[in-house]
Amino acid sequence: VGKSTLFNRLVGKREAIVDDSSGVTRDRHYGTCEWNGESFTVVDTGGFVEGSSDIYESAIRDQVKIAISEAAVILFMVDVTEGIHPLDEEVAKVLRKCKKPILLAVNKVDNNERLLSEGVFYKFGLGDVFSISSASGSGTGELLDKAVEYIKEEIDIEDHSELPKIAIVGKPQGGKSR
Predict the structure, then answer these.
(1) Gap between the Cα atoms of 43 and 98, Å rounded
(2) What would the pLDDT profile of 17-57 be if each residue is shown by its tens digit?
(3) Which of 35, 19, 62, 53 is nearest to 45 (CA)?
(4) Which of 8, 109, 126, 145 has the most CB atoms at less than 10 Å from its CB?
């Protein structure tokens, strides 16, 4: 869905491997993002597949859950070109239980027709929805502005000795199991 592409854009370098096939990202990948004078850690995760007995998908699922537990804010990425995929529904169910701010990033919105298609994702009821293109960067500024608001709120509440973290989660590219 473009999680690694967004990660690379946010950290300003090509640190995560980007590929059209699913399952390339398997472990958590950390980088630092600077936005409007604020620094925070961004965590790229593999694609989340709930309930799979595949050993790799099970290990990736564990890594995603760790990233979610560490994060101050969750960026849930979906692909506007695919609409709502059953795996998106599974991820949304998991995220509803985490009690953390969730920003829904509808990716690949790079024309007006796709912008009109993003409305179906409000169905998740997860809060703020942001139309972005991780490839071109369109819409990422508004997404980061909101993420930083949540990070500042958390910093005010708790004393952190390390940078706050944002986890980028979603289903695998194309939603296919291996």
Answers:
(1) 16
(2) 555 545 444 567 889 999 999 999 999 887 777 777 878 77
(3) 62
(4) 109
In the block, residue with structure tokens 């942001």? 130
Which pTM was predicted? 0.82
Sheet of strand 129-131, all strands in order from the earlier edge strand to the far edge: 29-35, 38-44, 165-170, 73-79, 102-107, 129-131
CA distance 146 to 171: 22
Q: Tell me which residue has tokens 């239980």.
A: 97
Q: What secondary structure does DSSP assign to 154-168, as a single string? A: HHHHS--SS--EEEE
| Other residues' Cβ atoms within 10 Å of the Cβ of residue 122 | 12
Q: How many CA atoms lie within 13 A of 112 on its CB side?
A: 0
